[in-house]
Design goal:
Blueprint (H helix, E strand, L loop, with lengths): L1 H11 L4 H8 L3 H8 L7 H11 L3 H4 L8 E8 L2 E8 L9 H10 L1 H13 L4
Antiparallel strand pairs: 1-2
Helix pairs in contact: 2-3
């Protein structure tokens, strides 16, 4: 999935594989292997590409279908939690890491709110 996303993003921006490889400071063949999914990009390359194209790493990896959406994952009391977010809705300076930290701080309130809504009978 990530190879197709990389190719689509590159083509949508009218760039050649060589131009993107040069931006990443990697060889053309290495970049071609990213698009063909023969090898996986390093995290630093994925972060660079997400910033370069103005999307999330989650979008490049195929975890979301909208370029501005991402997934924040964390654990609360040994329970895995996945929260979707919109990159454009962050107030200035809020990062994914800070979002996770804030969610953890509010986890009891969030959990109680969800449980309350789930326990109400459907109309």
């Amino acid at each position: 999935m990530f190879g197709k996303r990389l190719k689509d993003l590159r083509e949508d921006n009218d760039l050649t594989q060589k131009e993107v490889a040069d931006k990443l400071n990697i060889g053309l063949r290495t970049y071609q292997k990213y698009e063909s999914e023969e090898i996986e990009p390093k995290l630093s390359a994925l972060e660079f590409l997400a910033d370069f194209y103005g999307c999330t790493v989650d979008y490049i990896l195929g975890r979301t279908n909208h370029p501005q959406e991402g997934i924040a994952e964390f654990s609360i009391n040994e329970h895995k939690v996945r929260v979707g977010y919109d990159k454009n809705s962050y107030p200035g300076g809020l990062t994914k890491e800070k979002l996770v930290e804030l969610l953890k701080e509010q986890s009891d309130d969030i959990a109680n709110s969800i449980l309350e809504k789930l326990s109400k009978p459907k109309k």
